[in-house]
Specification:
alpha+beta; 5-stranded mixed sheet; 3-stranded antiparallel sheet; binds protoporphyrin IX containing FE
Length: 423
């Protein structure tokens, strides 16, 4: 098969080959009891999951829900760490808890490798991506990222109230990953749509989600074809030509990885930048201290990542088992809450407080075990530059309207609307 043949067909032509697995009826009803009926798409969870997680940690360390076909929620550090380190008994076949569960046949690759892959395939798929995300590769992207942050601040003009989420945080990772993939930066509005469909639209009917997946798939196909016509020095041309076990990557591997990089690269970092700015806008003492002592930024940043860890991932139970005092069944979902682990008082002193000069901070915001975030150097560079530029240009700011702040629910949590008053 020639390289071009791999990318000849659109999603609709492939759909017959793709098993979509078990589907569940969406349930939008309000949560009755967080220990037995939790839902990470409930508005109460989106607004403040921490109080719920603290309560669960006391009374039932592994909560359950019948929604999404049956799912567990561990909230203690030890349980989250044990599951993250155990890819024998928990598969990453899908990392999103939603209303359909892909079948075991797609193991060990999964739909979006390497995050959806299990050993031994996972190691090889991850290794392919490592060179693009090393510290030194990332440092080359810093000057352009800094210049872009300055441009975003210039574009705010001299208004008193601006939206730090939609006019600043959101654009930074979108531009960085678009440049890495060699995608048109003016398509950023489409990236936002893809993210919403992938992560926030998890309770939409399965048919709607599959159709949305198809639109994403076809968009990436279009970009791949443009790169085949005109090869470039970027991640897309690299992946199209990459080989594993002596063969070019399969179509679904290439496209799945592009989908992952776009979604994982944008929503996560946008949320981390937004949550950090939200904290500084709501806590003038921390903001003033950080402006006066910029050398504190590295520790402050790690603390924002710990306290407002944006990313929760998922696993599927591979076999019936007892775990953490509960009886799990094969095919149950697990919502793997790194944010809840990061606020476990048995792991961190003053776990519920944000301590911007916290010295020891071995948090799990970037995950634990073999799937630990591949983009962590990139994410840290973007977060540091975004905060440095903002604090240099806008040292005085506060929440313009606390009630107008909207947090995304689901598995990547961060402010999606963040009006701040400058001055
Ligand atoms: C503050 C921003 C970020 C946070 C908090 C974050 C968090 C995470 C977490 C918790 C995991 C583990 C997933 C699991 O155990 O299932 C992960 C994996 C991953 N992240 Fe990030 N991430 C961030 C930014 C990025 C960026 C900028 C990229 C690059 C495009 C990226 C790419 C990935 C990839 C490819 C994986 C899968 C690694 C593997 O399976 O071996 N992430 N991330």
């Amino acid at each position: 098969m020639s390289v071009d043949d791999r990318f000849a067909k659109n999603f609709a032509d492939h759909i017959e080959e793709r098993p979509f697995g078990t589907r569940f009826t969406p349930d939008d009803s309000p949560v009755k009891d967080w220990a037995t009926d939790w839902s990470h798409i409930d508005e109460v969870w989106a607004a403040d999951p921490y109080a719920i997680q603290d309560d669960l940690r006391e009374r039932c360390p592994v909560a359950h829900t019948n929604r999404f076909g049956g799912a567990w929620l561990p909230v203690r550090w030890d349980d989250v760490a044990a599951i993250a380190h155990d890819s024998e008994r928990f598969t990453s076949r899908t990392v999103v808890v939603g209303n359909f569960r892909p079948p075991a046949e797609i193991e060990p690759v999964g739909g979006i490798p390497p995050i959806s892959s299990d050993p031994p395939f996972h190691h090889d798929a991850r290794k392919l991506l490592l060179p693009a995300f090393t510290k030194s590769a990332v440092s080359k992207l810093e000057p352009a990222t800094r210049a872009f942050c300055h441009k975003l601040i210039d574009d705010l003009g001299d208004r008193d109230v601006v939206d730090a989420a939609t006019e600043y945080a959101q654009h930074i990772p979108a531009r960085v990953i678009a440049d890495m993939l060699g995608y048109p930066p003016q398509d950023a509005h489409l990236f936002t749509e893809f993210i919403e469909q992938s992560l926030e639209g998890i309770n939409n009917p399965a048919e709607e989600r599959i159709a949305a997946m198809g639109r994403q798939f076809d968009y990436h196909m279009q970009q791949i074809r443009a790169h085949l016509d005109e090869p470039r020095d970027d991640l897309t041309s690299y992946l199209v030509n990459a080989e594993l076990y002596g063969n070019k990557l399969e179509t679904f591997h290439v496209v799945g990885t592009m989908i992952l990089l776009l979604v994982a690269g944008i929503d996560t970092t946008w949320s981390a930048i937004g949550a950090s700015l939200w904290h500084l806008a709501s806590n003038p003492a921390d903001r003033e201290r950080l402006v006066a002592e910029p050398e504190l930024l590295p520790t402050a940043m790690e603390e924002f990542l710990r306290a407002y860890a944006p990313v929760t991932m998922a696993r599927i139970v591979k076999q019936d088992m007892s775990f953490g005092g509960v009886e799990m069944k094969a095919e149950d979902f697990i919502l793997l809450s790194f944010p809840a682990a990061n606020r476990d008082p048995s792991q961190f002193d003053r776990a519920a407080e944000v301590v911007i000069d916290r010295e020891v901070n071995r948090h799990a915001a970037f995950g634990l075990g073999i799937h630990r975030c591949l983009g962590s150097h990139l994410a840290r560079m973007e977060l540091r530059v975004a905060l440095e530029v903002w604090l240099e240009r806008i040292p005085r700011f506060s929440l313009a309207d606390a009630d107008a702040v909207r947090w995304a629910g689901g598995q990547v949590r961060g402010p999606r609307t963040l009006p701040v008053r400058i001055g």
